Amino acid sequence: MQQPARVFIVPGLGNSGPDHWQTYFERQRPDFTRILQREWDAPDRAEWVATLEQALAGADLSQVVLVAHSLGCVTVAHWAGQYGHRIKGALLVAPSDVETAHYAAFPTTGFGPMPLARLPFPSKMVFSQNDEWATPARARQFAEAWGSELIDLGNAGHINAASGYGAWPAGLALLAELG
After folding, report:
1. Which ranges in 7-91 belong to alpha helices (H)?
2. Going by C-beta distance under 8 Å and a sequence separation of 6 or more, which residues neighbour residue 2?
3. Domains and CATH numbers, the chain
4. Residues 76-102, buried b or exposed e (16+ Cβ, 10 A)?
5. What pLDDT is recorded for position 3?
6. pTM for this structure?
7. pLDDT at residue 6 tops 60
8. Fewest beta carbons within 10 Å, which of 62, 90, 96, 160?
9. What is the model's pLDDT at position 34?
């Protein structure tokens, strides 16, 4: 009998607020674990990656599924490049392009250039046609580089609470396909 997946939520800048789909996932599934960063508004890549690695210490990595949003997706890609762990999979939603001018307004450290190495585990990458944080062309480039299955939600903004993505049953269904 196969073990159920152990799900870790990897938020982006500012953490995911009370109306964000990641928070709804947590409410619906109290066994999901949110990765808590020390600094949400001025993130440092080395610290975020180390925090992710520490959170997974002791877990059966073959049963781990990561659920990342925005800068959390970039963190997962950097983490995979640094540690090369083979996990069960990752759901990467609305990865933000750290090479855009948007990031000039945020004091982020070390996230660029955008990591484009193939991920050593299965992944699904969900993107939007009108996401202000990454163009469709860049989203496709990330998915191709990472080896991710690409899922286009159409005009869905940044796929967050501001875009109307609170309770997101379709997202939970995508997650279920991974684990």
Report:
1. 21-28, 45-56, 71-83
2. none
3. 6-178 (3.40.50.1820)
4. bbbbbeeeeeebbbbbbbbbbbbeeee
5. 56
6. 0.96
7. yes
8. 62
9. 97
